[in-house]
Amino acid sequence: MIGLGTYAFFWQHSDLVPEPLTLVGAFEATKTQGVDLFQICDYAPLESMDEAELTDAAAAARDLGLAIELGTKGIEPDRLARFLDLAGVFDAGLVRSMLYSPDTRPTPAQAEEWLCQALPGYEASGVDLALETYEQVSTEDLVGLVARIGSDRLGICLDPANVVARLELPRDCVGATAPYVKNVHVKDFAFARQPGWVGFTYGGAPMGEGLHDYPHLLETVRPRERGINEVVEHWLSWQGDAETTVRTEREWTRRTIEHLRSTT
Predict the structure, then answer these.
(1) Which of 114, 145, 160, 206 is most deeply packed, by most CB within 10 A?
(2) By the 8 A CB rule, do 130 and 159 touch?
(3) 162 closest CA partner among 7, 6, 14
(4) Digits of tens for pLDDT over the chain (264 positions)?
(5) Which of 190, 184, 220 is nearest to 206 (CA)?
């Protein structure tokens, strides 16, 4: 299933725009695109919502016919337990996380211990936990951790754009993670020369115009055959003013959705 995530609304949620989009507003904007999945990922206000606010947001998603996934950072058992509770509120079938959070950087042994503490709850609830590929942990180490634990509910959120900062090749990341993928983050990426031709900037690109070999990902991971959701994100830099930035963000979303639908 194609989905949109909060990173597809990064600037629309930002205080830099005159009227930041609420979470329910993002739900509604998702539905107007004919998309039936939304991933609430690294969305700070979620963790400060009280019970009534969470219940109302979950009800709004259900009323719109949206399936929900959740995303956080860190694998401390208390954090994963909290997001498992939130998954129950939203009827979410997946929680995406990362091994490291801003406050914790577990050793490999500690990471394995924490995940083994948290996973029985996920297994009992039928909720998947997907650890994202990114530059702070090698793909080899992440795959090794998931393989060693061997839980049907533990897998990988594949975002091959992230690993370039570790000098890994996106295609290699796709190939190594394929058997364990439970979620895909979809965005294109490219290098551009900095002014004066001194160095490069690595950032986002409109889907289909960058370096992401998405056909290779589809062929290797087979997300649509395996029921793995493809969640749209962007790496869009500020475009000089709020109006231009929001318009560009919306256009990138539209183009990415069209690109994904054209490959079905």
Answers:
(1) 160
(2) no
(3) 7
(4) 999 999 999 999 999 999 999 999 999 999 999 999 999 999 999 999 999 999 999 999 999 999 999 999 999 999 999 999 999 999 999 999 999 998 999 999 999 999 999 999 999 999 999 999 999 999 999 999 999 999 999 999 999 999 999 999 999 999 999 999 999 999 999 999 988 888 999 999 999 999 999 999 999 999 999 999 999 999 999 999 999 999 999 999 999 999 999 986
(5) 190
Q: Which DSSP state fits 21?
A: P
- The residue to which tokens 């986002």 are assigned: 204
* Spatial CA neighbour of 188 closest among 262, 253, 131: 253
CA distances to 11, 86, 108, 172 from 80, rounded to whole Å, are 27, 10, 17, 29
CATH T-level assignment (fold) for domain 2-262? TIM Barrel (3.20.20)
